[in-house]
Amino acid sequence: MDIDKARVSRRNLLRGAIATAVILPFGASLASCAAPGGGGTTGGEQPQGDVTADNPFGVAANSTIDAVIFDGGYGVDYVENAAGILAGVHNGVTAEVSSSTKIAQELQPRFVGGTPPDLIDNSGANSIGFNTILDQLEDLSDVFEAVNLEGEKIADTLYGGVTAPGTFGDKFAAINYVMTTYGLWYSQSLFADNGWEVPTSWQDLPALGAKAKEAGKYLFLWGQEAATYYQTLVYDSAIIQGGDEVRLALENLEEGCWSHPVIQDILTIFHELIESGYVKPGGSGTQFTQAQAQWSNGQEALLYPSGSWIENEMKDQTADGFEMAGIAELPLDGSQTTPKGTMRAEAGEPFIVPSNAKNPAGGKELLRVMLSKEAATYFAQEKLSPPIVKGVVPADGFGSTALVSQTQMLEAAGENVFTVKFVNLYGMNSDQLPIWNSFLDGKMSVEELTKELQAITDRIREDDSIEKIPAT
Q1: What is the per-residue pLDDT across 391-400, written as a single tens digit (0 to 9) for each?
Q2: Domains of the chain from N-terminus onward
Q3: CA torsion sign, 50 to 56 to 58 to 63?
């Protein structure tokens, strides 16, 4: 697609839709926004329109779509952009896009009260555990079977494997919009200027940490809300080293899963890095984007573990000439059981449509618009991350070294990619955060960390009121 034409088209649509695409802060009241014809306090009386090729879900004329979007690394403007496009496609249909950083706390009461939004980006540290709401969500297979705004079947325009992260049992309950690569991020220019080599395994990290210390820097740092980024690094690395034996033990909440030898070996090295002073102290008292700015702007640390949202999240707090790039998370050593290049890469940012919403057809239609070439190109260019829609990122990555490195990682991995669901599936992150903050602060041993993490896993496994979804 011609990017300039796409942006002109978007601006024209937004001019025409400015009076109808309503953007609200989360504090505004949404529960009272009844769509014409809705008539009830729950989703029992939903507005209905004619089902046509251009309106595959039957969105009612003049209806309102209530969308609540996690305001994290990608912001919410890409959904606002889609809302403007939608208003130009369906005259009289409005999308009210609200932001939230506490999805579970703010939306679980609405699920209980029978007034959930029509579309939710169920993401962030405070997301809702899918096991608790799965039976209240629409199956979204029909969205992928629909045609996009350009007239192409949506399923034919997407990367492979994008249904896996949002499929629970036999239900495709979440459309994950962003192709996320998980890795270690660093400054190419900083490494080049100092003659440092990029690590290839955990065995390389102690020596690199010593070099960082000699240069007055740290190997790693962290912020309070993102302490579990290091948990992700640890178990992803263990899966790269040990394969499905490690992954399935964690995913299926097995007894003693955190004591797997590969996990323990990685944790032992990590603890030694902390004790050696290679991890900047005090992160448990630092807001996570402030900590990330210490890395991306202050260049106080060499490496930072994150998903590929990191560049966009820190684009206003990154040093000039930083040349951000990523590498896949590291195996323990050179004897990994998975093929070289294996990495965690998955569609992220899960969008869900509650069945009991006032306008679930509208929620699906907003998703359909988001999956158009125009909306997807806007996301790729503005967020410097690839959406699940193929063919919207040029070879130069819009000038982004980080985006180019993502492409290189994905090409090196090929089909050797994996996803991990158990933390989000069972809503574990909030309980795991304080444990990891203590470990990174040097206040907890490997044995104590393992015991605490296993206790969370065991509690969920043994609670019969929690539905378990086996992984394969």
Answers
A1: 898 889 999 9
A2: 3-179+347-397 (3.40.190.10), 181-346+403-462 (3.40.190.10)
A3: negative
